[in-house]
UniProtKB/TrEMBL annotation:
<feature type="transmembrane region" description="Helical">
    <location>
        <begin position="363"/>
        <end position="384"/>
    </location>
</feature>
<feature type="domain" description="Major facilitator superfamily (MFS) profile">
    <location>
        <begin position="22"/>
        <end position="480"/>
    </location>
</feature>
<keyword id="KW-1003">Cell membrane</keyword>
<keyword id="KW-0472">Membrane</keyword>
<feature type="transmembrane region" description="Helical">
    <location>
        <begin position="405"/>
        <end position="429"/>
    </location>
</feature>
<keyword id="KW-0812">Transmembrane</keyword>
<feature type="transmembrane region" description="Helical">
    <location>
        <begin position="174"/>
        <end position="195"/>
    </location>
</feature>
<feature type="transmembrane region" description="Helical">
    <location>
        <begin position="207"/>
        <end position="226"/>
    </location>
</feature>
<feature type="transmembrane region" description="Helical">
    <location>
        <begin position="145"/>
        <end position="168"/>
    </location>
</feature>
<keyword id="KW-0813">Transport</keyword>
<dbReference type="Pfam" id="PF07690">
    <property type="entry name" value="MFS_1"/>
</dbReference>
<feature type="transmembrane region" description="Helical">
    <location>
        <begin position="276"/>
        <end position="297"/>
    </location>
</feature>
<feature type="transmembrane region" description="Helical">
    <location>
        <begin position="64"/>
        <end position="83"/>
    </location>
</feature>
<dbReference type="InterPro" id="IPR036259">
    <property type="entry name" value="MFS_trans_sf"/>
</dbReference>
<feature type="transmembrane region" description="Helical">
    <location>
        <begin position="238"/>
        <end position="256"/>
    </location>
</feature>
<feature type="transmembrane region" description="Helical">
    <location>
        <begin position="20"/>
        <end position="44"/>
    </location>
</feature>
<keyword id="KW-1133">Transmembrane helix</keyword>
Length: 500
C-alpha cells in the first residue's frame, strides 16, 4: 500500500469511539454541500437576465461544479493519507463557506463562477472523506445502516433543492440562495470542530505529480467532453472529441502509471476485488439512469404537460423525499439480508418503471408521472447503497481511501456520460419525429416531438437496466481480507479477496 517515505504510519485507535457525533457532523456538512448542487437550477432564468449571459454560458455554473469534483476526487485518495480527518473535513467546509460568500455577493458572472469553483473544491474534498470515515468507524455488520443514513442526505439534498429554490425565488432574489446556506455551513464547521475526531491513518506516501497531472487531464477531459456534448453542442463539435480523446488517452497512461509506481496516487488494484469491480459497474449504470431522469422528467413536465418550473419541481419532490427516506431502510435490510436480496428486486422495479415511462404521452396525468418517479427512485435506492457498501466492504482497510475516491469519481464521470448520452438520444428522437412531420412548426407537433424523444431515451435506459440486472445476480455479501494490525501490505502482495 501507499506507506510513505516518511516512515512510521499514524493509525488512530477507533475502538470505543463515539460514532454518533462524528456521523452527525459528516451528515450536516454533506447536506449543506450536496443541497447546493441543485439549488441554482430554477434560478438560471433570473441569472441570465441580471448578469446578461446566454443559456450556454449559464450552464457553466453546473458544468464547472461537476468538472471540478471529477478532477479533485481522485486526488483525495492521496490527501486523506497526508492530512487528518479533522483537517480534511474542516478545510473542505471552510472552502465551501468562502465559495458561498463569494457567490452570494458576486457583482458579475465571472465572480459567481469563481464562487462556484471554490464551493466545488470543498464538496470534492468532503465526499470521499465522509465515506472513508464511515468505513473506518463502523464494523462491516453495521455499515449498511450508517451508509443508508448518509444516503438519505445525499438523495434528500438534491431532491428538495429545486423546490426550495423556487420558494426562495418567489419572494427573494437569487443571492439569498447563497446567503441562506451560510448559517448552515458555519454551524457545520462549529459542530465538526467540537465533535469530529481523527480516524484516518496518516501514512504520507510520496506525491507523484505526473500521476496528478494525468488524472486531472484524464478525468477533466472526459467529464468536460461529455458535459459539452450534453449541453447541445453535439458529438461532432471539435471541442467534444478533442477533450474525449485527450481524456481517455491520459486515463490510460494514468492507469498504467498506477500499476508500475511503488506508491500509486490512486490504487487501481482495487478492481482485483471482484465485488468492488461489479459494484462499481452497477453504480455507474444507476448514476447514468438517475442523472438522465433528473434532466428528462422536468423537460417532459414543462414541455409536454405544460407545468410551470416551480410546479415541475414540486411534482418531483415526493420521489426525492421517499428515495431519501428509503436509504436508511435499505441500509438496515442490507445488514440483515445482504446485497442481492435488495439489488435484484430494486433493478426489477427500475426496469418495470422505465417500461411504463417509455409510453408517457402529452395527456398522461401528472399523478401518474409522480407515481412512476417515486417507484424509479425507490428501485434506485435499493441498488445504489447496498451495491456501494458491498464493494467497499471487500477492501482491506488501507485501500479505503482509494476505493471511496474511485467510486465517487466513477459516479461523477458516469453522471456526465449518462446526461450526454441520454440527452443525445432524446434530441435524435425529437429531430426524427419533426423531420417526418407534415407541420413541424405546429406547437402540438413540437410537444409530440418532445414526447417521442422521451420515448427513445427511456427505451434505451430500460435495456441498460436489463444488463445491470444480469450483473446484479452475481453480487454477494463480502468481508475484507483479514490482516495483521499496523503491518501494511504492499499492493503486489495483498491477500486474496474473500467472498461469502
Amino acid at each position: 500500500m501507499n506507506i510513505g517515505a516518511t516512515g512510521t504510519a499514524s493509525a488512530p485507535q477507533t475502538e470505543g469511539i463515539r460514532r454518533l457525533p462524528i456521523t452527525i457532523a459528516l451528515i450536516i456538512g454533506a447536506f449543506v454541500s450536496i443541497l447546493n448542487e441543485t439549488l441554482l437550477n430554477v434560478a438560471y432564468t433570473d441569472l441570465m437576465k441580471e448578469l446578461s449571459v446566454t443559456p450556454s454560458t449559464i450552464q457553466w455554473l453546473s458544468t464547472v461544479y461537476m468538472l471540478v469534483i471529477g478532477i479533485l476526487v481522485p486526488i483525495t485518495a492521496l490527501l486523506i493519507q497526508w492530512f487528518t480527518t479533522r483537517q480534511m473535513f474542516l478545510s473542505a467546509m471552510i472552502l465551501f463557506l468562502i465559495g458561498t460568500i463569494v457567490a452570494g455577493v458576486a457583482p458579475s458572472f465571472a465572480v459567481l463562477l469563481t464562487g462556484r469553483i471554490i464551493q466545488a473544491i470543498g464538496t470534492g474534498l468532503l465526499l470521499p472523506v465522509m465515506m472513508n470515515t464511515i468505513l473506518t468507524i463502523y464494523p462491516p455488520e453495521k455499515r449498511g445502516a450508517a451508509m443508508g443514513t448518509i444516503g438519505l442526505v445525499i438523495m434528500f439534498g438534491p431532491a428538495i433543492g429545486p423546490t426550495l429554490s423556487g420558494l426562495i425565488l418567489d419572494s427573494l432574489n437569487w443571492r439569498w440562495l447563497f446567503f441562506l446556506i451560510i448559517p448552515l455551513a458555519v454551524f457545520s464547521i462549529l459542530f465538526a470542530a467540537v465533535y469530529l475526531r481523527n480516524v484516518s491513518e496518516i501514512t504520507r506516501p510520496k506525491v507523484d505529480f505526473l500521476s496528478i497531472l494525468l488524472s486531472t487531464i484524464g478525468f477533466g477531459g472526459v467529464v468536460y467532453g461529455f458535459s459539452h456534448a450534453g449541453e447541445g453542442k453535439g458529438w461532432s463539435d471539435p471541442v467534444v472529441y478533442i477533450c474525449l480523446v485527450a481524456g481517455f488517452v491520459s486515463l490510460g497512461l494514468f492507469v498504467w502509471r498506477q500499476l508500475v509506481v511503488k506508491e500509486p496516487t490512486l490504487d487501481v488494484r482495487v478492481f482485483k476485488y471482484p465485488m468492488f469491480a461489479l459494484a462499481s459497474v452497477l453504480l455507474m449504470v444507476m448514476t447514468m439512469t438517475l442523472f438522465s431522469t433528473l434532466i428528462l422528467l422536468p423537460m417532459y413536465l414543462q414541455g409536454a404537460l405544460l407545468l410551470a418550473p416551480f410546479a415541475a419541481g414540486v411534482a418531483l419532490l415526493p420521489g426525492g423525499v421517499i428515495n431519501g427516506l428509503m436509504s436508511p431502510v435499505a441500509g438496515r435490510l442490507f445488514d440483515k439480508f445482504g446485497p442481492r436480496a435488495l439489488v435484484v428486486p430494486g433493478l426489477i422495479i427500475v426496469i418495470a418503471t422505465l417500461w411504463f415511462m417509455k409510453d408517457l404521452t402529452s395527456t398522461t396525468p401528472v399523478g401518474t408521472v409522480i407515481g412512476l418517479h417515486i417507484a424509479l427512485l425507490i428501485g434506485i435506492s435499493l441498488v445504489m447503497m447496498p451495491g456501494q457498501t458491498t464493494g467497499l466492504n471487500q477492501l482491506p482497510r488501507q485501500m479505503y481511501p482509494h476505493g471511496t475516491a474511485i467510486m465517487n469519481t466513477l459516479q461523477q464521470v458516469s453522471g456526465a456520460i449518462g446526461t450526454a448520452l441520454f440527452m443525445s438520444i432524446y434530441s435524435s428522437g425529437q429531430v426524427r419525429y419533426l423531420q417526418a412531420s407534415a407541420n413541424p412548426e405546429d406547437p402540438a407537433e413540437m410537444s409530440n416531438a418532445l414526447v417521442s424523444g422521451i420515448h427513445s431515451a427511456f427505451t434505451i435506459s430500460m435495456f441498460v437496466g436489463v444488463l445491470a440486472l444480469v450483473l446484479g445476480f452475481f453480487l454477494r455479501r463480502t468481508e475484507a481480507p483479514v490482516e495483521a494490525p499496523h503491518h501494511p501490505v504492499h499492493p503486489k502482495a495483498q491477500p486474496q479477496p474473500q467472498q461469502h
